[in-house]
Amino acid sequence: MAAPQVLVAGAGVVGLAAAYYLSGRGFAVHLLDPGPFPSLASTASLGVLTHFNGGDDPLSRLYCQGHALHAELAIRLRDQTGIDVGWRPLGGLDLAGDEAEIAELRESLAFNLERGCPAEWVEGAPLRQLEPGLSDRMLAGVYFPTDQRVDPAALCRAFLQAAQQQGARLSAGERVEAFGQEGEGVWVRTRSAQYHADFLVLATGAWTGELGETQGLSLPVRPVRGQHCRFSGPPVHHLLRHQGAHLLPAGGELIAGATVEETGFELQTTAAAAERFTRLCEQVLAQPVRLLAQYAGLRPKPKGGRPHLGRLQAQARVLVVAGHYKSGILLGPLTGQLLADWIETGGPPPEMQRFAPER
Ligand SMILES: Cc1cc2nc3c(=O)[nH]c(=O)nc-3n(C[C@H](O)[C@H](O)[C@H](O)COP(=O)(O)OP(=O)(O)OC[C@H]3O[C@@H](n4cnc5c(N)ncnc54)[C@H](O)[C@@H]3O)c2cc1C
């Protein structure tokens, strides 16, 4: 019997994870994406896999499972493709530079410990031992040993290569303009072609709301711009957090980010972001830094604070996996795995109703 065919619209981290897990289970996968590759959101993303601090609701459970998946996935992808996806258990350090921030950090420590999240207060010599390059302005910190990082662009490249080794195809330069279900199959139209398959997966990130509207569907996912800057400078060893921003090591460089900006589909980087993150480095680090590059991407923001995951009501062979907002790198692999389960077994299960795509 021929393998069931799945069209995946969108080759960001979520679409690629879907392609990887589906092709690994024998589905014939065809990815369609207008480009660029890796997606701008993946390139701009920090790749932080933040500690999980409890909660027993469906979204918290996804975070917990998503976080737990990365270490083993990194090994599997490296064995299969030779690509190091940059997964590192760096540990995180939330930093305080004045009395008000110290009070906030103490509250955060109590909250995290109460919820069973490993965390530890550090100041003085132990703080300097953990992170020798800190400036004198940094007075205290909370250390989170379970914070991790993965390189989002490398993860995307590895997913694509592994999926292709398993038989998946990518058609770059293809934007889905219309789609629908007809009987036991689906169709998709792009500017240059019409495709048919057994299933369609919409992994179109920040563009999902716009694409839904063209089909008369309410899939309210909208773009929220994020920027980060890369610097050369003194080495840092952990994921440093200060005043709502991150500073982290990446291949000999420093990454500082990220902004959260309601600027629609505008993708330009700004001088204001470069200034903000240069100032952050000056505050947190003892040594000066030099700006090397700046990136912007669009986070897919969902309605209701939870991703849109599941089948369309009237077109059960069309599945949506979009709206991961600030956590698409953390949740992308798990989403791909769950999606493959649902296509294989007829899910999603009833407890996922909360994530139903149409809102
Ligand atoms: C600055 C910044 C920092 C971030 N930091 C983190 C972090 O530390 N940790 C974390 O977990 N997450 C982080 N994120 C969020 C994360 O990057 C996103 O949630 C994730 O990349 C979204 O993946 P996606 O595949 O849903 O969307 P995308 O990567 O945007 O992929 C969607 C793809 O769909 C394609 N597409 C669009 N329309 C169509 C169409 N009509 N037909 C076919 N294809 C189409 C696009 O070309 C694109 O390639 C950050 C994001 C930003 C911007």
Strand order of the largest sheet: 5-6-4-14-15-16-13-17
Overall pLDDT level:
96
Task: Please report which band the strand proportion falls in: under 5%, 5-15%, 15-25%, 25-35%, 35-45% or over 45%.
Answer: 25-35%
- C-alpha termini separation: 37 Å
Assembly form of the protein: single chain
Radius of gyration, taken over Cα atoms and rounded to an integer in Å = 21 Å
CATH architecture identity of the largest domain: 3-Layer(bba) Sandwich
**Unreliable sequence segments:** none
> Main β-sheet: number of strands, strand sense, barrel status?
8 strands, mixed
Number of domains: 2
CATH topology of the largest domain: FAD/NAD(P)-binding domain
- SSE ordering: EHEHEHEHEHEEHEEEEEHEEEEHEEEH
In the CATH hierarchy, what is the superfamily of the largest domain? FAD/NAD(P)-binding domain
Morphology call: elongated
Give an account of the 3D structure.
There is one protein chain. The protein has helices spanning 13-24, 40-44, 58-81, 99-114, 124-130, 152-165, 208-214, 271-284, 328-345; strands at residues 5-9, 28-33, 48-49, 92-96, 120-123, 140-144, 148-149, 169-172, 178-182, 185-189, 194-197, 199-202, 222-232, 239-242, 245-250, 253-257, 290-301, 308-311, 318-322. It has 359 residues and is an alpha/beta fold. It folds into 2 domains: 5-84 and 151-220 and 303-355, 3-Layer(bba) Sandwich (FAD/NAD(P)-binding domain); 92-147 and 223-301, D-Amino Acid Oxidase, subunit A, domain 2 (D-Amino Acid Oxidase, Chain A, domain 2, 2-Layer Sandwich), CATH 3.30.9.10. An 8-stranded mixed sheet has the order 5-6-4-14-15-16-13-17, sandwiched between helices. A 6-stranded mixed sheet has the order 8-2-1-12-19-18, with helices on one face. The radius of gyration is 21 Å and the shape is elongated. The two termini are 37 Å apart.
